[in-house]
UniProtKB/TrEMBL annotation:
Residues 5-166 form the NadR/Ttd14 AAA domain. It holds the Pfam family AAA_28. It comes from the Bacteria. This is ATPase.
Amino acid sequence: MNRSVLISGCSGGGKSTLLAELGRRGHRIVDEPGRRIVKQELEGDGAALPWVDMAAFARRAIEMATADYATASWKAGWTFFDRGLIDAAAALQHLIGEPVLEKLSAAHRYNSRVFLTPPWPEIYVTDPERRHGFDEAVAEYDRLAAIYPTLGYEVIILPKIPVADRADFVLDRLSQEVN
């Protein structure tokens, strides 16, 4: 069974908070490639920032997500990814039309269930790493919600509930797969 689980969806929808809760419960988590890249770029020359060069940013995210996947794929237990390879490849493909998504997603399969955080305007905030507006976040969510099923994933929309309950929801849905 594939124990690499994607948590994707709308920016500002509570993905990182959910992953932190899953980490507190003893599960391995992998932080979002995009946020790690932005932090690195802000400390350096800033050439691969999404608001400077989105294609370079997406390519770096693909490289980082591929490495994250390779590192986690051989470990026992659940590993939860805050976004991942498919999100990065979908962004690049949307941006420049380069057909990378199907090839990359076939070579790097995550668990068949993907959990999406829906748009949640009440908790959405911008910060130094998230400068885009809510409308852009919703457009990205809509693209991802359409893409995942075409790649053979079952999309599960996370309810807008407190983080501990969200974590219980995810773990409960995954435990149903084991039985």
